[in-house]
Amino acid sequence: MILALLGLVAGAVRVVSSRREDAARARRLSVLRFSLAELDAMDDRQFEFALRDLLIRDGWSARQVGQQGDQAADVIADHPLYGRLVVQAKHTKVGAKVGSQVMYQVNGTAGPVHRANAATVVTNGGFTRDARQWGERHAVGWVDRERLCSWAERGAPLHQLLQLPTLARRRLPGARRTRIAAPYAQTDSERRMGNAR
To answer: pTM for this one?
Structure first.
């Protein structure tokens, strides 16, 4: 009897959760949606701004920073639960693949240069098998054409696709369990901008 009751309660919770998720997805899609054809037709810079806008749609504070010498960051986004995310955009011809070298670059600069908690490479093409495997081993997210479609066209939030852990679940070595490590320290320019407001 008790097991049956618990089963009913668990089922009801799943239904309510599923309905909430569907409603949230519908709201996101009503705000912004890109088809793969629209993303393919963009130039590199437009693609970067589209990724920024999709992150904003998903609740991130995001800015496009890509330019020559951007140190493997085209978009930098911040979220109160997930910290800072560095996105490297690779707008390619359909069918082209991003190689491991891009993953190495992003991994090498995301934390030290941009003070990020996570990094990902997003392309409208694909990734070589080595790039995907290297990214998974070294916690550099990858968004290929299929994942991009789920994000831009179907409304799945990027942090869900990448399965980003929340800051509360991350611990730095030596940190106490009750403390949450700061996601990043402000740069001098960010401090100046904050003081100017």
So the answer is: 0.73
Whether 103 contacts 140, CB under 8 Å: yes
pLDDT (tens digit per residue) in 138-178: 999 999 999 999 999 999 999 999 999 988 755 434 333 33
Write out pLDDT tens, residues 117-139.
999 999 999 999 999 999 999 99
φ/ψ bin of 172: left (φ > 0), alpha (ψ from -120 to 50), beta (otherwise): beta
Contacts of 131 (CB under 8 A, 6+ apart): 97, 98, 99, 100, 102, 103, 121, 142
Environment class of residue 192 by beta-carbon count within 10 Å: exposed (0-12), middle (13-18) or buried (19+)? exposed
